[in-house]
Specification:
Radius of gyration: 22 Å
Distance between the termini: 35 Å
Strand order of the largest sheet: 11-6-1-2-3-19
CATH topology of the largest domain: Nucleotidyltransferase, domain 5
Bound molecules: adenosine-5'-triphosphate, magnesium ion
CATH class of the largest domain: Alpha Beta
Structural class: alpha/beta
Largest sheet: 6 strands, mixed
């Protein structure tokens, strides 16, 4: 039986549900004691389109994780993503009349930065301070106790469409679980694969999963921009299936087994035997043929990612380059192709800073799941359990999250 402070991360992805159970030793120090992954049925491009199928998949992942960890799971930290997510930067200001900044002032200035930025059909899921400015002095992280006349805050705010967030929370609730927190998936992945130095000097995370590609830009140690593209690695399966005349299942299998991200990297061309569609025998295809199908689609994804990075305004301020992660980036040569298209240094991000069951989670597809645990441990969510049993649930989840963020600073 697990002891101590146990938290659970639930990554409800387009292709898989990943459930991770961990004991928290200290903020940022977690030991994983249970891992389970189950095919995800019921999501498209990161959003829930079938409640029943999603609930079934979640239940299966939870039951397996409970067995492995030897503990009952009652509440989870959940990742949220999809094309309905919007993010924006805000700026707030209050006057202090030459006295010390207090925690209440921090809450007020953050409140003023978010005021008016929330349309009725959207809910705030994150409000993250980027910097505080006291009497014109910029880049202050902890202003409490400083004397000043004017306090300003720059913040990054992430909102979700209420109905999409409700559908996700409903799936978790119908699986018999409480939601402790919703965390934007790329914020979670960033916790798992980016180093503090990279965030300080400037870095972009690109998490390419099955149905979405999520982006987060960091500079000066804080988050500056988040965005997502509603295509991911599953689109390669369609292209391979069409191009080679194979079923989608076979296409996915050969992509994962033999796929190489760029034809430039296929040195030893090798024949692969695949089943033709509708059981009409087997045929030979070459690795080069496969790479020639995969490359243009990955190029398209990286080109769209480059456009998003440029839109952030930080493209020229990222000396640490790009960290790619997510299941689709496990394909050999992804870093090579990303570097070519993004024109910056690229490395593959695999979850680190964890102990326990490393062999099961040291994979790019586990970045979000591991990141949910790290985020949870850093934000002490286990002490802030919320029961999701009434129609006011969403307001309570989101209000609580707002409070956690203001607690942080
Ligand atoms: N070795 C590999 N080579 C290429 N693709 C791979 C490999 N391993 C996994 N993939 C692909 O990665 C994708 C799944 O990645 P991941 O588990 O990160 O997605 P997800 O979290 O379920 O989806 P999303 O985050 O988009 O909602 C699938 O398209 C899968 O085929
Ligand atoms: Mg994912």
């Amino acid at each position: 039986m697990a002891q101590g402070n146990v938290i659970v991360g639930l990554d409800i992805g387009t292709t898989k549900i990943l459930c991770l159970v961990a004991e928290v030793n200290a903020p940022g120090d977690v030991e994983i004691i249970g891992v389970s992954t189950h095919p995800s049925k019921g999501l498209q491009r990161g959003i829930v389109v079938n409640i029943e199928s999603t609930v079934r998949s979640i239940r299966q992942a939870i039951v397996d994780a409970e067995k492995m960890a030897g503990t009952e799971i009652t509440s989870v930290i959940v990742g949220i993503a999809g094309g309905h997510i919007r993010s924006l930067n805000g700026h707030g200001m209050i006057t202090l009349r030459n006295r010390e900044v207090t925690q209440r002032d921090i809450d007020r200035v953050i409140e003023s930065a978010t005021a008016g930025a929330q349309p009725a059909d959207r809910e705030v899921i994150h409000v993250m301070p980027q910097e505080f400015i006291v009497d014109g002095e910029r880049k202050i992280k902890h202003p409490v106790g400083l004397y000043g006349v004017k306090l300003e805050a720059k913040i990054h705010m992430v909102t979700a469409q209420v109905t999409q967030a409700q559908n996700l929370v409903k799936c978790v609730h119908n699986s018999g679980l409480d939601v402790q927190s919703l965390v934007l998936e790329q914020i979670a992945s960033s916790e798992a694969v980016l180093t503090p130095d990279e965030r300080d000097v400037g870095v972009v995370l690109v998490d390419c999963g099955g149905g979405t590609t999520d982006i987060a830009v960091f500079c000066d140690g804080s988050i500056k921009y988040t965005s997502n593209i509603t295509i991911g690695g599953d689109f390669l399966d369609n292209d391979i299936s069409f191009g080679l005349g194979a079923s989608k299942v076979v296409a996915k299998e050969i992509k994962e087994r033999y796929g190489i991200a760029s034809a430039d990297l296929v040195d030893e061309d090798e024949d692969i035997r695949i089943d033709k569609i509708a059981g009409s025998g087997r045929k030979k295809v070459s690795k080069l043929e496969l790479a020639n199908i995969v490359e243009p689609r990955l190029e398209e994804i990286f080109t769209m990612a480059r456009r998003e990075i440029m839109r952030s305004g930080y493209y020229d301020m990222l000396p640490a380059g790009c960290v790619i992660t997510g299941g689709s980036m496990a394909m050999p040569g992804s870093d090579y192709l990303a570097q070519k298209i993004l024109n910056m240094p690229v490395r593959l991000g695999i979850p680190s800073q964890i102990s326990g069951l490393e062999e099961l989670v040291s994979k790019p597809e586990c970045s979000t799941g591991v990141g949910l645990l790290l985020w949870g441990s850093n934000n002490q969510v286990s002490n802030k359990k919320i029961r999701i049993r009434d129609p006011q649930v969403f307001k309570r989840v989101f209000n609580t999250m707002r409070t956690w963020f203001s607690d942080l600073f």
